[in-house]
Amino acid sequence: MALSGYSTLHINKLERLKMRELPKLFGDQSEDLAALFLEQEGYLVIERNYFARKLGEIDIIAQKDEVLHFIEVKSGKADFDPVYNVTPAKLRKVINSAHYYMKSKNIDVLFSVDALVIRGDELEFIENVTL
Predict the structure, then answer these.
(1) 84 or 20: which carries more pLDDT confidence?
(2) Which residue from 48, 73, 104, 112 has the fewest beta carbons nearer than 10 Å?
(3) Residues 58, 74, 45, 108, CA torsion sign
(4) Which residue, among 107, 93, 89, has the nearest Cα to 46 in the 3D structure?
């Protein structure tokens, strides 16, 4: 009887772990799709998941026509439109992280903060998102 209880407890822990991993897996797949889309559109993907300490993460850094693009990828499965997750607070983090990236790499070029929104099988690329 105790073994049965242990198995249920163990399964519940595995289920909770899976539930935490699913959004990360979905996000990774969305970013893979976004990177593929950008490459097909002529962008050179330079970095993915760049983390600027204390500032935040940039999903994709790409370059096209001498312009550096800092791209936030948002996706969703539900009825909620993921574009609404591109908030002013998130954009400030991306902008601050972009400045940090360019300073740390000693880069002085034109740049754009963009959003790539994935809704099911539809991609929308929004260039030069502003607050």
Answers:
(1) 84
(2) 104
(3) negative
(4) 107
The token pair at 20 is: 């935490």
For 84, residues 6+ apart whose C-beta sits below 8 A from its C-beta are none
N-terminal to C-terminal alpha carbon distance within the chain: 59
Can you give the pTM of this predicted structure? 0.78
The Cα 69–Cα 113 span in angstroms is 6
Domains detected in the chain: 2-126 (3.40.1350.10)
pLDDT tens column, 105-126: 999 999 999 999 988 778 899 9
pLDDT band at 83 (very low <50, low <70, confident <90, very high): confident
Q: How far is CA 116 from CA 3, 4, 24, 35, 70, in A?
A: 49, 47, 17, 10, 10
76-34-24 Cα angle (round to 5): 50
Q: Are 127 and 114 in contact (CB under 8 A)?
A: yes
